[in-house]
Amino acid sequence: MNHQDIAAVRGIIRSNRRWDLFFAAAGFVALLLGVLAFVTLFGQMVLNGWERLNPDFFMSFPSRRAANAGILSAWVGSLLVMLVTAVSAVPLGVAAGVYLEEYAPKNLVTDIIEINVTNLAGVPSIVYGLLALGVFVYAFGFGQSILTAGLTLGLLILPVIIVATRESLRAIPVHVREGAYGCGATQWQVVRDHLVPYSTPGIMTGVIIGLSRAIGETAPIITIGALTFIAFLPASPISDTAPFINFQWLTSGFTVMPIQMFNWTSRPEEAFQQNAAAAGFILVFMTLMMNGLAIWLRYRLRKSISW
Amino acid sequence: MKRTVLASALLAIAASAAHAESFVKVDGSSTVYPVTEAVAEDFQKSTKGSVKVTVGISGTGGGFKKFCRGEIDVANASRPILKKEMEDCAKAGITYYELPVAFDALTVVVNPKSKITQLSVAQLKKMWEPDAQGKVTNWNQVDPSFGDAPLKLFGAGSDSGTFDYFTEAINGKSKASRGDYTASEDDNVLVQGVSRDINAIGYFGYAYYAENQSKLKAVAIVNSKGAAVLPSEKSVIDGSYNPLARPIFIYVSSKSLERPEVRQFVDFYMTNASTLASEVKYVPLPAKAYQANTDHLNKKKLGTVFGGEAEVGVTIEALIAREAKL
Prior knowledge:
The structure holds 2 protein chains of 2 kinds. Chain A is an all-alpha fold. Chain A has 2 domains: about 50 residues; about 250 residues, Orthogonal Bundle (MetI-like fold), CATH 1.10.3720. Helix content of chain A is about 75%, strand content about 0%. In chain A, helix 3 packs parallel to helix 6. Chain A starts with a helix and ends with a helix. The model of chain A has no long low-confidence stretch (mean pLDDT about 90). Chain B is α/β, with parallel strands linked by helices. Chain B is about 40% helix and about 20% strand. Chain B has 14 helices and 13 strands. In chain B, the strands form 2 sheets. In chain B, strands 1, 2, 3, 4, 6, 7, 8, 9, 12 and 13 form a 10-stranded mixed beta sheet that branches. In chain B, strand 10 and strand 11 form a beta hairpin. Chain B starts with a helix and ends in a 5-residue tail after the last helix. The N terminus of chain B is likely disordered. The interface between A and B is medium-sized, with 29 and 41 residues.
């Protein structure tokens, strides 16, 4: 190889390196755009709403006076709706996922179901709201209640949970299944004692990501008729007399955080904008906490699995 | 074991639905919402929470739909009930009282730096009529004396009662408007738009002007007698601010009114609406109007005084004097 060839090769290497550098820079800028946009929005919300973030804000009902208004009915409503959502969507989603992955015969019908489940994840949330208005509110007569809202959002995140369940079942090494079957376990025993426990971290992650999407949903909740002014809390789920739990709260009217926030942003008084910013901060914080919990759970549960 | 838990859960739900607490359910217009919210807040405090009031926002039309299905006790309405809605209510056997509770003065605003101080209905029509779309784009087309400057329009979105009333009052037909203007259901967007553009003009409810007086200038409207009048409590009550002042209503189901908690709420509304309406920057009705409402309730005068038609520029005296019909 003569001198000139070496120079040419070096030239090629240098130009390739430049591209490397160029892509790294472009990628960094792309990342920065997203992060900066979020930080700016979040920062402005914190700055605007900071003064309102005191205990009273969490413990007060909505009011015509911005300084007295709070998010008590909104955060309690959001929490109870999330509870119904989780209780309804998790068992259904996990069962459906396990069935599709482990039990379902591979045929045309299963294929169609699979395609539909994937597509459902992309259906606009307002469509779920309209469905729920017809089915839950009127056909089943659940009314404009926490039960209706929870079930609606449950439907909304069902595909997310099914997909997450299937993904995490697939991630379990084949030798776990084969080993268990080899010892004479039935399919149900394999699912109960091995597959579901091992896929729990992945399922939990899917559930929490689904819930953190659901908590910010506004359109389907408005469609089914959430309230705007509600200055009382639903009956407590826990009572001091037997049977100690009651389900009255399920039929109660409610409001949720995004609706409260939306109502405040459309008020004429400047002071309500502060309230909206503070409520927005709490909502983002709730979502961040849920995502944080998902990461932590995944980490903790993964560590305890030894294959 | 599990089955009993499920069964008892269902029983508990059924039982809780059967044994209803004292609720007053209100839904409807977002324009009436601030007044009803203020009343609900104080009413709930005065009963120490023994009666629970809920207020939703689903628009005047959405509110009437629920009202005529018997789902709510009180409907907030920024316009009188329409023929179609009257038929729906009649079919479901719902009869009702129509109670005006306050005035909303639609306010035409310009940028504080603008030279415009007054406009006539004809001039407003030139700007906003459907035929103006794409053609009337300069202030000098409205009136040569306004000078050569681009005309920037901001107005209510087509789903709001404000839009319905403004188009009815200015263009003569509800919902008839040019479409090439900045429209928003969120009046704060309109406030921002007009406050940032010297050539802008917009319209929205009086409360949004009252809260943003430093950023906006109200335009006096030439009324039916030829006088240019600015919106104010006085000019709205004496009827000189016309045709852009409109009464807003609550409709109360007569069946619901038999329940003591609903009666209590409506009575509280009539007693306190005047103070509370001013507090949320609406123009209260004269005291005799609230008295007339209470009389109507006591004498069981059911129905509407509008006969299902949209009307503009009606004075409150004229309304009180009319005979209600179902």
